[in-house]
Amino acid sequence: MFSASVAGVLCLVFMGSSGHARYTCTINPHWADAFLTEQGQLNIALFVPMSALAVLVFRSPLVALLMGSALSLAIEVTQATVAPLARTCDSTDWTANTLGAAVGAGLAWSLLVLASRSVSLTIHLRPVLIGALGTAGVCLTVFLSCVQPVLAAPSGISDASPSMRTAVERALKQAFGTTYRISGVSYISTDHVVLVNLDGGSASLTWPGGSNPSQLVVNLRPEQQGVPADQATSFPVAGTQRPSSASDAAAIARRYAAEHFPDVLKGSTADIQSAADGRLGWDIDIRRVVNGVLMPMRFTVGIDTVGHVRDLLVQDTPDPARLPPTTLTEQQALASVARTSATAEPSPTGPGLLLVRREAGAWRVAWAFPMGVNGQAAGTAYVDATTGRLLTP
Predict the structure, then answer these.
(1) For residue range 46-83, what is the model confidence (pLDDT) as tens digits?
(2) Closest CA to 329 of 356, 357, 351
(3) For a Cys staple, 378 with which of 117, 189, 207, 346, CB 3.0–4.6 Å?
């Protein structure tokens, strides 16, 4: 049974491989994420039965813990470096697996003690310790020579609430029907964002409480040169053909929008950009301008080279019913920015854009100017188009 449990763990962790080794591994210093997220809890549960069976076989909880931790370490390095078994390498997975091994070992050890069965911390310890240290040494060598560590940003991650799950399911159903299965949902409280793992991609949905408007972002695996077609997960748009030009891609984007988000097309214009010099297709940004003012609604869809949707950004915010009057011209607003940047970098680098922006809970009209330092982009400056006051970026 112990051997079967090890085989089961290996099948589960390597199932659904991307087939492309990334040679990167996320290093997450926030160890609490290992049990606060759904994925972390599943990783804990995965190693509990195996570790418990190891105690029953070897009669040592310490041996079971070492074996579980070493196996998890080997799995993570393999997922980062071996293409046929490649998946995402994350230190949180190792933390969760090791915690699961400790829980399983503790439970089995308690049952053996209650049943008055013999158990020892040191039995079989020497060979298992040598094996665990050897595994760790090999993994460390491979990691240092082949793998690029990526430090995870502060997260504040917790499991998503039922209402968040419902909102995510509703948003994805509108965007893609039932094409993609949700494999995990978590919530980042610091950013007010719900993160979604999909079979074939990822998504995020802003949640009420933050300063940003409601926004859905989806990333799927596009068809591109060097990637097998059966590994692409981009979304096909019914009734369309492979695009041969930017205008073809824009027509596909509009057809997709008409079927799934028809409101975004009312009074809108489209800006088309090549993505990665055409290797990833095109990005079509659909926006709405009313009386010369860019509205908050935003709809950006990425169309890959075969005409499928690879990326999606939907900020389906209704146009404000009332807006303050625009009293500043672009030159007057630019003068206000120039006065501020006269003695400090950055400075304006291009023309202004008149847009709607939420400020202190109310919609305002603002001039937005790109800023730069020594030829490098450095954010955007906003000037209230009614009062002339500089707004916080």
Answers:
(1) 999 999 999 999 999 999 999 999 999 999 999 889 98
(2) 351
(3) 346
User: Which of 21, 14, 23 lies closest to 149 in space, CA to CA?
Assistant: 23
Helix or strand (DSSP H, E) at 187:
strand 182-188
Residue 137: partners with Cβ closer than 8 Å, 6 or more residues away: none
Instruction: Find out whether the peptide bond into 213 is cis, omega within 30 degrees of 0.
Output: no
Task: Quickly count: other Cβ atoms within 10 Å of residue 169's Cβ.
Answer: 14
User: Which residues, other chains included, contact 140 with Cβ-Cβ below 8 Å and sequence gap of 6+?
Assistant: none
The Cα-based distances of 291 to 220, 328, 351, 383 in angstroms read 36, 15, 18, 18
Cβ neighbours around 274 below 10 Å, total:
13
Q: What is the DSSP letter of 27?
A: E
Three-class SS of residue 296?
strand
Q: Which residues of the chain have pLDDT under 50?
A: 211
Using DSSP, state whether 332 is helix, strand or coil: helix
State the pLDDT at residue 63: 92
Q: What is the pLDDT of residue 65?
A: 94
pLDDT one-digit tens code per residue, 248-271: 999 999 999 999 999 888 888 888
Q: What is the model's pLDDT at position 345?
A: 66
Cα dihedral: 183, 20, 204, 41 (round 10): 40
The pLDDT value recorded for residue 372 is 83
Query: Is the Cβ–Cβ distance between 209 and 291 less than 8 Å?
Result: no
Residue 159 CB partners (closer than 8 Å, separation 6+)? 36, 37, 38, 41, 185, 186, 187
Q: What is the pTM of this model?
A: 0.57
Phi-psi region of 159 (alpha: psi -120 to 50; beta: other; left: phi over 0): beta
